[in-house]
């Protein structure tokens, strides 16, 4: 008789055919997070899209540019996250994976909620005419539950305290936990056969099969709900297909065709957006709206495949710049929106015009992100608080003490998020 496999073995991906490190995914992660600075700067100026504050200069046409990025930017990050989880689980025991991931995600998130994000609410309340206090007066009130100052700003992890743009960190931690009980199924021979079968199908059929769950989710759920569900399903897609050699072979070989098709879909999408979506009401043909949602879903998937293929073709190589930028990703991500909102609000006082104001917001925001990271990377405690790996090696006892302190801090916070 064969010896039964230990139960924990069901949670570990198979070790055969482990691919080499994919530097293209590291580059793509850096690029997509970098595009967030452009995207959130654009949110100051795009008409009809909600944001914390708005410039006095609004553009309806800017939405057409934003729609080039909007459908696929987060889907790419979730796909990369799923691939990364599979790499980690091969090397790290499951409980250690959960512990380390919790510390690396929740500690920076908690610090940011209490220190980095509050200025966003401060400027938003001033912009809305709901605040006439100094920042210090506001910040003291910020930590008072049920303060009447925040009666119109209630949703959050705690009253009026929320993750804002850092919802990706919160969801990534939650999805990592939700993925754990699914691992025996995802690692099973049955799912492996289904995945192999997918890549044996005609490319059009395979793409449609991948699109349909995304389309159904987008069509049947409210905005916040489908954002969460789409993130989780893209993370699972990454876990399942991110190692498959046929996937990388096909997207690399056909990246030009994928780009051409994606551009056609993008042009179709902005046509639908301008001719139908902007004027949609209860009398709009429902079939037309369903078709528009399918177009959006298809655009999302094709652009993900296109940028994956493009990155695989040209970016799958290490460099010193990549090592530096990979460390900079989380700090940039954590601070960038607060900087954009603060700079955008202050510059709006000078009536500079949309072009000059927009360029200055971008330049100052990038400069501030660079300066902030240069400080963070030189201070070990700040590296921890911004999700950057420690620079120096420490004794086992010091590591254990650090993990214990971090656990004491994040366990109540994690339970608050889950419950």
Q: Keywords for this structure?
A:
419 residues, mainly alpha, 18 helices, globular, membrane, transmembrane helix, transmembrane
Architecture overview:
The chain is mainly α and 419 residues long. Helices cover 70% and strands 0% of the residues. It is globular. The protein starts with 22 loop residues before the first helix and ends with a helix. The mean pLDDT is 92.
- Rounded mean pLDDT score: 92
How many helices?
18
Residue share in β-strands:
under 5%
Helix % is: 55-70%
Summarize the structure.
The chain is mainly alpha-helical.
Topology:
Blueprint: H1 23-42, H2 62-69, H3 73-91, H4 94-116, H5 118-127, H6 135-142, H7 167-179, H8 183-186, H9 189-200, H10 203-220, H11 223-241, H12 245-253, H13 255-275, H14 286-314, H15 320-347, H16 354-376, H17 380-385, H18 396-418
Helix pairs in contact: 1-3, 1-14, 1-15, 1-16, 3-11, 4-7, 4-18, 5-15, 10-11, 10-14, 12-14, 13-14, 15-16
Domain Acyltransferase: 23-372
Pfam families: Acyl_transf_3 (PF01757)
Protein name: Acyltransferase family protein
């Amino acid at each position: 008789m064969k010896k039964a496999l230990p139960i924990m073995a069901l949670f570990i991906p198979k070790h055969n055919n482990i691919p080499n490190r994919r530097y293209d995914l590291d580059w793509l992660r850096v690029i997509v997070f970098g595009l967030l600075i452009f995207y959130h700067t654009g949110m100051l100026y795009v008409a009809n899209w909600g944001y914390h504050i708005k410039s006095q200069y609004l553009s309806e046409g800017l939405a057409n540019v934003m729609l080039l990025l909007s459908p696929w930017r987060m889907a790419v990050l979730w796909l990369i996250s799923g691939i990364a989880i599979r790499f980690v689980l091969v090397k790290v025991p499951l409980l250690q994976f959960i512990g380390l991931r919790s510390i690396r995600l929740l500690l920076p998130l908690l610090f940011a909620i209490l220190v980095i994000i509050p200025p966003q609410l401060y400027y938003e309340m001033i912009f809305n005419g709901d605040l006439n206090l100094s920042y210090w007066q506001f910040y003291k009130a910020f930590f008072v539950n049920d303060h009447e100052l925040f009666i119109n700003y209630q949703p959050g992890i705690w009253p009026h305290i929320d993750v804002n743009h850092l919802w990706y960190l919160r969801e990534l931690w939650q999805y990592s936990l939700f993925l754990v009980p699914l691992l025996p199924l995802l690692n099973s021979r049955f799912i492996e056969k289904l995945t192999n079968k997918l890549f044996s199908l005609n490319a059009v059929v395979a793409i449609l099969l991948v699109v349909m769950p995304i389309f159904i989710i987008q069509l049947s759920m409210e905005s916040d709900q489908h954002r969460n569900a789409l993130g989780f399903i893209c993370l699972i897609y990454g876990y399942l297909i991110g190692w498959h050699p046929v996937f990388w072979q096909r997207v690399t070989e056909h990246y030009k065709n994928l780009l051409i098709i994606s551009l056609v879909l993008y042009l179709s999408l902005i046509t639908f957006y301008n001719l139908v979506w902007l004027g949609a009401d209860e009398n709009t043909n429902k079939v037309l709206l369903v078709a528009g949602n399918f177009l959006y879903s298809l655009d999302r998937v094709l652009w993900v495949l296109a940028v994956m293929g493009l990155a695989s073709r040209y970016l799958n190589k290490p460099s010193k710049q990549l090592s530096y930028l990979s460390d900079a990703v989380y700090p940039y991500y954590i601070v960038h929106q607060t900087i954009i909102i603060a700079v955008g609000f202050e510059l709006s006082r000078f009536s500079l015009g949309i072009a000059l104001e927009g360029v200055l917001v971008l330049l100052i925001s990038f400069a501030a992100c660079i300066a902030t990271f240069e400080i963070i990377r030189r201070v070990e405690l700040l590296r921890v608080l911004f999700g950057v790996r420690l620079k120096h090696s420490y004794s086992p006892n010091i590591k254990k003490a650090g993990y214990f302190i971090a656990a004491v801090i994040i366990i109540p916070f994690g339970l608050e998020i889950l419950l």
